[in-house]
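Schema walkthrough. Field components (list of strings):
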Amino acid sequence: MKYLKNVTTLKLDRDKCIGCGMCMTVCPHAVFVLREKKADITDRDACMECGACAGNCPADAIAVEAGVGCATAFIVGAITGTEPTCDCAKGSKSRC
Amino acid sequence: MDDMAEKLDCCSNGPVDEHSSAPWLIGSIPSGQDSCPRVATRLTWADTLGRWKVRWALGRDRYTVQPGLYAVGEADSDSLVFVTANYKMSFDCLRSALHNRNAWILVLDTAGINVWCAAGKRTFGTDNLVDSVANINLAERVNHRKLILPQLGASGISAHIVSQRTGFKIVYGPVRSVDLPAFLDSSMKATPQMRKVEFGMLDRLRLTPVELVISIKYILFAMLVALVASGVSRTGYDLHAAPSRALPALTILLSSWLAGAFFGPVLLPFFPVRSFAAKGAIAGLLAFALAAGVGITQKMTSIETCAWAAIAISIASFLTMNFTGASTFTSPSGVRKEMRVAVPAQIVGILGGIVLLIINLFT
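Field assembly_structure (string):
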């Protein structure tokens, strides 16, 4: 299943990349591959901006405006004037 | 029981509460200078019942376990340490995946929220993990320096920073705890499949009860309004005529609820559009067409029919749009983009529908 095209804020600086492969490990949508000993984005539109890659990149080579892709969170955030968070849907993603 | 509470307290970060007598605790085993509570790895009917209840949005806010360190099997200083959230379903998934093994489970305080959502909020996060490792003196309890985290916790954690601050190296396990035994048995190598989040029909079916329960109260309110308003006609208000006149409207509201909160989510990949709001709009249109097909709109004027079509499509669109939060692949940038178009359209659809219904009264 694919979501909207050309919306992700994901950016990879290949010059900084040290090729450790951590982004490939943590990405839940296989956005990254290793090409010539450095990470490369292979499936940009699969990115859900969870921020796992950026937070776990030891070379600080990845940037993304991470957040929750949740309409309810945006609505609640707009009404209460707070940051959109997952508060409303506690158990929704949990499974074995 | 007091004895147990005391032992539990040694390994936990928080105060002892009702969980100290939880049925899934089976004694305690020594660790470092004190001892740790031991957990069962077979889930009982009570665990299954608990999971069913939260799937139907019953008591979901307090389905928690006490944060702290727990033992599995005959855990000793060589046993691996697995980290999870204090949402009981997350904890249950992990302990049942560790059946017949010796291990430690470190439960972080995520306010009862599952690993992935808590990672998004950074409560399943670097600081919390570093503090917990220090608070329970983990370095004195185990000989190795390795923590195994669920992969979906990675969005809240910076593995290299945890290493710098605690000396513990982070290993990201598979996305699903059911893959954990295979992961551990293959010297912690994850297959590409273990690293990917899926969102199959069964996953979506599991998540729709919560959507249905959360949205039903708004639909019931709308139905009540429609019922009361149905008594209004050009000749005045007729309470006795209201129920029979309201029947088509109530049927349409119910079918748009089912379309948006159930059929939209379950049939997600079968709609030929990517926006969730658009998927819901199609589901709503189909449900309305079906209702019209079986004669629900037979007695309506064409203005009324248009009004109810607009309302039904808008409701279903809104409900399916809200399923973005339960889905596993929507980005905030994408949701923001579709909402910029969808929310004004839904408001126009519902308000426009109401205006048309009022106009219908005077024509």
